[in-house]
Design goal:
By secondary structure, this protein is an alpha/beta fold. It has two domains: 134 residues, FAD/NAD(P)-binding domain (3-Layer(bba) Sandwich); 136 residues, FAD/NAD(P)-binding domain (3-Layer(bba) Sandwich), CATH 3.50.50.60. It is 28% helix and 27% strand. Strands 5-2-1-9-21 form a five-stranded parallel sheet, with helices on one face. It has a four-stranded parallel sheet with strand order 13-12-11-17, covered by helices on one side. A three-stranded antiparallel sheet has the order 6-7-8. Strand 1, helix 1 and strand 2 form a beta-alpha-beta unit. The longest helix has 18 residues. The radius of gyration is 21 Å and the shape is globular. 47% of the residues are buried. Bound molecules: flavin-adenine dinucleotide.
Length: 385
């Protein structure tokens, strides 16, 4: 029998985890894996907060994926612009078409600044490399007493605790520059990260307090006035000299343009079938491209879980028994340098049932940054090619 053509779109944490797992468990002569990635170097996003505040260099976020073929897959560096799910083929920006038997979309999510009027004009989005670099320059130019507003206005967005890390790092960069910034963290929930439980939000609130950060929670953002430099929400407003909030995210353009995701909302996938698309059995949507449909956080750890589940489902189709992963764990960090918290959660119940997440603060204090660095080193050394 001819080998099955497995086409993977994206080589971030989801796509790379899929490639690693597929090469490990799928029969070598049973599949041919091709990866389409728009960029020759992908972004390791967890350190964007450090880049945005000048604690790391912008170059540190990039990880070359030019060595993908050495792993034993075919790599095409081009952008996938359309999926023809009926014909089982994908059109690339360069003009070529690739046919598949299985399609694994790990194309991430997209910031949606248009969701809040005025946000795109007034805000520096810290969750992109361009935004992080812009923010670090803007912070350098701010005077003593300047008001910096950070946080997140609506879900979903990658790594829910990370805007609170950014808040603390903005305070630290002010100290480094010999200035005191007035930092406010705005958030749509009160208390922050309520779904992760009391242990987590109590710790996060304590971190904000000890760094002198004002917290305004439970806001429903309505608009931003770029000229007046005011963020308005139902029942109040907050003024700023610098606004760097994380916008809500939406599914990637590829899925929306191909009719595989709605214009607003998230594509339905079946977690019991390895995150197959609800309508197309041969398409898997993993990582930030679909996780928000479960109201679970966009996270590299969960992208990896979904990749393993998708691999196990394909293996089963090919007659190979592979145990799907049993639990869906994720860790995110809030590093304030002088203090911090590593938050570990089990999202199994959230993804596979009606259950709640079970979260704990698993590390605290100034060593938080070292744990986060260990995660970065592991990923760059063992997952990236
Ligand atoms: C500040 C910050 C801190 C974070 N901290 C953590 C943390 O501590 N722990 C954690 O688990 N997660 C963390 N995350 C979240 C984590 O980075 C994301 O959840 C993860 O990157 C998602 O992986 P993904 O593969 O689904 O998507 P992405 O990482 O977005 O990768 C998608 C890839 O697909 C490519 N692509 C997109 N569209 C196309 C196309 N049409 N054609 C070809 N290629 C395409 C892109 O170039 C990209 O390389 C953090 C994120 C941020 C922003």
């Amino acid at each position: 029998m001819a080998p099955k053509r497995v086409l993977v779109i994206g080589s971030g944490p989801g796509g790379l985890a899929f490639v690693r797992e597929a090469l490990r468990v799928l029969p070598k002569d049973g599949v041919e894996i091709t990866v389409v990635e728009a960029s020759r170097r992908v972004v390791f996003k967890p350190i964007l907060t450090y880049v945005a505040t000048g604690f790391r260099d912008p170059e540190d976020v990039y990880v070359s994926v030019e060595g993908l073929e050495k792993l034993g897959v075919k790599a095409i560096f081009d952008e996938a612009v359309k999926v023809d799910a009926g014909e089982r083929k994908v059109l690339l920006r360069g003009g070529s078409e690739i046919s598949y038997d299985y399609l694994v979309v790990a194309a991430g999510g997209e910031p949606n600044e248009a969701a809040i009027p005025g946000l795109a004009e007034a805000n520096i989005n810290p969750w992109t490399v361009e935004g992080a670099v812009k923010l670090r320059e803007a912070l350098k130019g701010l005077g003593d007493g300047s008001r910096v507003v950070v946080g997140a206005l609506r879900p979903p967005y990658p790594c829910p605790p990370a805007p609170f890390e950014l808040a603390g790092l903005v305070v630290r960069v002010g100290e480094r520059l010999g200035r005191k910034f007035n930092v406010t963290a705005v958030f749509f929930e009160k208390p922050p990260l309520r779904a992760l439980g009391e242990e987590v939000y109590t710790r996060v609130l304590k971190l904000l307090e000890s760094s002198g950060i004002e917290f305004i929670g439970g806001i429903e953002a309505t608009e931003v006035d770029p000229q007046g430099k005011v963020l308005r929400y139902k029942g109040g407003e907050v003024s700023f000299d610098l606004l760097a909030v994380v916008p809500p995210f939406k599914p990637p353009r590829l899925l929306r343009d191909s009719g595989l995701a709605p214009e607003s909302g998230w594509p339905a996938v079946d977690p019991y079938k390895g995150f197959r698309h609800a309508k197309y059995d041969d398409i898997f949507l993993i990582g930030d491209s679909s996780i928000a449909v479960f109201r679970a956080p966009m996270s590299g750890f969960l992208a990896s879980h979904m990749a393993q589940a998708a691999t196990a489902a394909i293996a089963r189709d090919l007659g190979v028994e592979v145990e799907p992963p049993k639990r869906a764990y994720a860790t995110c960090f809030v590093d304030h340098i002088v203090d911090g918290a590593a938050i570990f959660c089990d999202f199994t119940g959230v993804i596979y049932g009606e259950g709640k997440p079970h979260c704990h603060v698993v590390a605290e204090g100034p060593l938080t940054g070292a744990y986060k660095k260990a995660y970065e080193d592991y990923w760059k050394g063992n997952v990236a090619p």
